[in-house]
Amino acid sequence: MPRKARKLSSTNIYHVMIRGNRKQDIFLEDEDRFKFIKVLKKVKQKKEYILYAYCLMNNHVHLLIKEKDEQLSQTMKRINVSYVTYFNQKYQQIGHLFQDRFKSEPIEDENYLLAVLSYIHNNPLNAFIVKNLEEYTWSSYCLYIKELPQNNFLIEREDILSLFSPDKDQAIDLFVRYHRQNKLEKSNIIELPEEDEKHGHSLINEKGAKQYIQNYFKEYRFDLSNLRERKYQSHRNKLISYLKLNSTLSIRGIANILGVSTVTVQGIK
Fold first, then answer.
1. pTM here?
2. Fewer Cβ atoms within 10 Å of its own Cβ: the N or the C terminal residue of the chain?
């Protein structure tokens, strides 16, 4: 069956995602992450693309890219081939590191651009890897809020900040507020086709699931012992639905963590 043609963006801006083959980790240590960023810089030095945001997770990468003279597919090929060559040589592997070709979603307006930017930066927070975005080293978030030497080389910082305010300090403040606000607005979560079987964002593990449940209990002022009560049935169903959609837990795993039967979990969409 022939591959479906990519949707083209009238702005030449795309949300791009690459992930490990069969969801395997593509970064095994920090040296690998440094190398990937170095590859981004090297390809960018040739003026092949403009980069607005990036986030490196263990088994996938999000990029917010503007295509220039070279087609996006060629730019991504340069990036992928360079990193795969390094990875396979270092770990003495052969075969595919990345799953199929990269995924992309066209960005057609400023509102969507900022929503995707926030989504990309909030990946580590949504996956419960960090409690604050400033703690995560492997995204472009800190390049926006801090004055760092590589700011104006790796990402087009001023292009994005100018969308918030002509005053730099005010723009940074609004940038931070926007990210805090939009991590809570699920309508802004971007779904990339086939990124995973469920959603375009990172799935949380058991630890992250437990933290989400505790936060939910705290917000609605009840606890695990109440879930079997009829008046809390809607909350129980919401938790089950969320975990089925957003976690790596199996049906049995969700049942165990919530103290309900597997039949109950299977019955909730």
1. 0.69
2. N
d(CA 194, CA 200): 8
Cα–Cα distance for residue pair 28/120, rounded to 1 Å: 21
DSSP string, 156-184: -HHHHHTTT-SSHHHHHHHHHHHHHHHTS
CATH 3.30.70.1290 given to domain 13-188: yes
Give the separation between CA 51 and CA 154, rounded to whole angstroms.
Answer: 7
For residues 49 and 65, what is the distance between their CA atoms, to the nearest angstrom?
7
Name the token pair of 250.
């199996």
Q: Over the stretch 111-158, which tens digit does the pLDDT of each residue have?
A: 889 999 999 999 998 888 888 999 999 999 999 998 766 555 789 999
Token pair of 228 as six digits: 């079997």
Segments of the chain assigned to CATH 3.30.70.1290:
13-188
Please give the Cα distance from 193 to 15 (Å, whole number): 11
Cβ atoms of 216 and 234 within 8 Å: the answer is no
| Beta bridge partners of residue 18, listed in sequence order | 61
Please state, in angstroms and rounded to a whole number, the distance separating the CA atoms of residues 205 and 207.
Answer: 6
In the numeric block, the tokens 């927070």 are attached to 125
Assigned token pair, 32:
């690998």
Buried b (16+ CB within 10 A) or exposed e, 18-27: bbbeeeeebb
